[in-house]
TrEMBL record:
GO terms for molecular function: ATP binding; ATP hydrolysis activity; metal ion binding; ribosomal large subunit binding. Its cofactor is Mg(2+). The keyword Nucleotide-binding applies. NCBIfam families: redox-regulated ATPase YchF. Belongs to the TRAFAC class OBG-HflX-like GTPase superfamily. OBG GTPase family. YchF/OLA1 subfamily. ATPase that binds to both the 70S ribosome and the 50S ribosomal subunit in a nucleotide-independent manner. The keyword Metal-binding applies. ATP binds at residues 11-16. This is Ribosome-binding ATPase YchF. InterPro entries: ATPase_YchF/OLA1, Beta-grasp_dom_sf, G_OBG, GTP-bd, P-loop_NTPase, TGS, TGS-like, TGS-like_dom_sf. Residues 2-255 form the OBG-type G domain.
Amino acid sequence: SLKCGIVGLPNVGKSTLFNALTQSGIEAANYPFCTIEPNVGIVEVPDPRMDALAAIVKPQKMQPAIVEFVDIAGLVAGASKGEGLGNQFLANIRETDAIVNVVRCFDDDNIVHVSGKVDPIADIETIGTELALADLASVEKALIREGKRAKAGDKDAQKLVALLEKLLPHLNEGKPVRSFGLDADDKALLRPLFLLTVKPAMYVANVAEDGFDDNPHLQRLRELAAKENAPVVALCAALESEIAELEAGEKTEFLAEMGLEEPGLNRLIRAGYDLLGLQTYFTAGVKEVRAWTIKKGDTAPQAAGVIHTDFERGFIRAQVIAYEDFIALGGEAKAKEAGKMRAEGKEYVVRDGDVIHFLFNV
Ligand code: GDP
């Protein structure tokens, strides 16, 4: 399954955040397709729609979607030259599908900042430069290798070389591949290179408890992120780790006292899921209300394949009720009566929240 890698300079609050995630996480053993490693946290995707569906269907069981976060330690300036745990760091990040960049946006004289002062923009540049330099090295190596094949007349190699030659100056400026404006074909060509800066990225601003408003660090980060079209989640990692340690009852009480509807982690988890290009459709029966994870753009047969490969192979059609209709009309029977249950075929692109029942041949 797809994973978000958590990166950031030392002392920005990564471990604190990761511990909060794993505290509120679930047993990996129940999810055979997940990675069981100390640095991988598996968390349920908080989705209020599940509760709304359950209130109507009254199922025996609920099964939310899950997403994986990987704690990737060891980023320091010079990582791309193998400094610190540089090589291991880059290898770990290569195995993730999206990058969650934790940035320190709190002032605290007791906690050392690696470069001497709190400066989110400089920190982001440090990280961005290391990743871009690592990609630059990959591109240069590939140019040598593919250049020979291109000269020998290999058409695919010629296409790749042309693309790499355009990418080279972009990376040389320390810019990420994702900002180059690649189309789907370009991305497919580049896939074998396992570049780092092509992965989607977002920022987590680690702020002080009272640092959500009037915080110049956060403001600068937001401005930068807006230019990059990157999402920002602001939270206080220290507070999140305290919340994560509370029992369910205490947690509700604590959040209410703070005037919060949910922990900040929930926003992070949903943003991570979205960043990975994932979305949810539901099956809603009395036995179980379940959230199934698919990629944005997946068709009905592909969505069926997530339940079982036989469902994809033998797909006949999908009976689909939009989430809003299901809730507004009060369930499947009434939605059907109102003509809101659609029969969709092989070409149907599933929408986020669709409540689906598949018909298939075995
Ligand atoms: P990492 O090196 O990025 O994994 O950072 P850690 O999670 O180990 O945090 C570094 C230090 O910053 C620790 O002493 C944390 O207690 C402290 N810290 C983490 N998050 C916060 C926060 O939100 N506010 C404050 N004041 N300190 C924090």
